[in-house]
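protien #1 (seq + structre)
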Amino acid sequence: MFVNVGRFRFRPMGQDEQQRLMQRIEQDVPPIARESPGFRGVYFVRPSDDEVMAVWLWDSQADWEAALARFGPLLQEYVIPNLTQPPERVGGEVVIQVTP
């Protein structure tokens, strides 16, 4: 399994604007992800008011890279313009997995 973590730092936004952005992500991301080969899951985490982390689970790095191209237009439209800096991304193959 391959995991990719993206960290997105947003410009200051009001509560309503933040909520609209998160609703748009919640609406647009799942259909693309579910149609992408190798998709296992995604978690969006809010460590602070102006930051979101996305933790993606894929069968392989190749699956992640192929899907990223599909997410590009969506990111360019309404995520990237609201960032204070380019997103930070780090990924790797899972070497140990513990499940309940």
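ok now protien #2
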Amino acid sequence: MKIINTTKPILVDELYEYLKDNLNRQFREHKKENIDFDLLLNGQTITIQKPDLYDGFLFRLTTTGSTTLEVAKSEHYVDDVNVLTLESVLDDLFVKHLGATAPQI
């Protein structure tokens, strides 16, 4: 699990909408494949998954403070090229949207 500190307060509903608007588009730009990931919001946690390709979650993002985000990455797909691309996209989006100071997951 990685802890990401941000310079802006994290509002989980706002982060969820931002990721819904940008994650899949940016992934397609990087990977040149038409894969869309599902984002689920449950309380203070956003889960990223792709059930038709992967069992379970790929990433789980949980706000644990006003400027702290915990990022759990599935241990089952650490070397998968789609997951590595998704990780890079998330890092970029965290910097752009939250002012993340240590975005490497």
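The domain at 2-98 is CATH 3.30.310 (TATA-Binding Protein).
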